[in-house]
Structure formats: structure tokens, C-alpha cells
Fold this protein.
Amino acid sequence: MIAQHFQLNDALAYQQWREKKLAAYPLKLANYQTYIKDIHHPSATELAHIQAAYQTTNMAFYRFSVDKEQEKELIYQLGTQLGLKQLDHNLCADQDRLTSIRVTQHQGQHNYIPYSNKRLSWHTDGYYNPPDQQIRGMLLHCSMPAMQGGASLLMDHEILYILLRDQNPAWISALMQSDCMTIPANILNGKIIRPICSGPVFSFDAKGQLHMRYSARLRNIQWRDDPDTQAARAFIQTLWQAEDSPYILCYTLQAGEGLICNNVLHRRTAFTDNKQDAQKRLLYRGRYYDRLN
Ligand SMILES: [Fe+2]
């Protein structure tokens, strides 16, 4: 199913939706942040404020204070209350499946950039997941920020859809092809850790909502070799050159703050960690098969 405003032959529904969508920009961050007074019992008003934020932009920020031991469990519960229930199990997830993101190296993490202090290029989470395990919801919570850097840059994937469709609707069709973006198998010491994965950039869930899988990485991504796909890919790359775009939000999560979203496009800037172990950057991330409700 495809929602009416995403149907390429319905220009009117698209224009009406587009106008409403763009009216929120430039985003005033304060409107999309919710302070949760008691994270053990978020109020109906607080939850409604978070929902209103992500219903507009597919993302919302929250903040609360609680002691560190309870933090992880309480974030998990907050996600559940907003419809994030089916966690994805990835290679590096902790026992309870929320992933601790810090600079580290141990078995199973084989030098993934997310676990370094390097910059991460634009992507949606789990773009290498098989079609039946797409990541539709994502939660990122900061337990300890970096000494310097480590900002998140974010763009609602529906905005990217608009920018592309306004340029050339044929690009949207191209990005919906089932062999549009292919990620080669991940092989470590001769063992296949993740098989080859091919799929569309844009797809729609059972309720007709837009989902996106994307990575700006130039290596290890094979794009379909046709003019529209190549032009669309190049156009998206040019967008990343202008990070002062009104559609890109830049924010550095502080301790006790988090982002909850429908797996919008994002990237991370490089960072410098504190020398003290207890003060090194630590984020918790949850990846879900559900969208926010
Ligand atoms: Fe990510």
C-alpha cells in the first residue's frame, strides 16, 4: 500500500501534504524537545508532546534526569510506550539488545566505524538488513557526551523525498526499484557474517508510510546502473555538501537527552573523548522493526 500523497499520479494530494510538511521549517528545536519530569511515569501530556513532534518531522527529542544504573531500562520502557517494541538484534548489541556505542574494540566489533571516534557519513540505520527486518524506528540516548564533537546531523527522510520528487518524479520511481541499492556480503576471516543485501531506497509499509534505506558511503555500495538512479544518487550527494540547509538539524545530545525517530537520515561528526574512562562518550541505541505510533 502507498499513502495517497506518495502516489506519483496524484499531484494534488502531494502538493497539499508537501505544503503542510514544509511549513514546519526551519525547525525550532525547542518545539521538538520534551522534558520528562519523572521518567518512571511519563505523563500523558509529555508523551503527547513527543508524539506531536515526530508526527511532524519523524523525530523528537526528550530529556530527563535519573541515576545511571536505571537509565538503560527506562529508555527501553519509554520506547515501548511510544510503540517501539520489536528490537533488532545486531552483531554488537548488548545482552538486553540496546547497543552501547562507545569507542571500543572487542570481538564481534571488528573495527566498525560506529565504535570509533570518527565521523559517520549520512545513512539510515540497518540499510544492510534483509527486507523482512527493516529498521523503521530508532532510539538514541546519551549517557555521556564527548569532550568535544560527536554532534548528530539529522534530516527527515520525507523531506528528502520531497526534494527529489520536486526535481524529477522519475527519480522516485528509480529509487523504488527492488535492486536499487546493493550491499555486498560482510565476510570476516572467510566466514559470511551477513549475506549480500539488495533492496529499494524508498519503500512503503503496510499502512502506506514511507521507509528509506540509504548510505552515502562510496565504497561497498552498488547502485543500480541506470540514468535515473545514478542522477538521484548524485543529487542526494550534493545535498550533503550544504549542511547549513534549513532541512538539516544539528544537535549534540547531552547527558540524559535522547532522540526517538522513524529512522530518519543522520550522520555523526568526529569527536574527542575525555581521558577519564568514566567520562568517555557513551550512547545507547535501540533499533526497531516498528515505526513510532
Ligand atoms: Fe546510525
User: Anything to note?
Assistant: The first helix runs from residue 11 to 22. The mean pLDDT is 93. Residues 100 and 284 are 5 Å apart (CA to CA). The chain has one domain: 25-288.
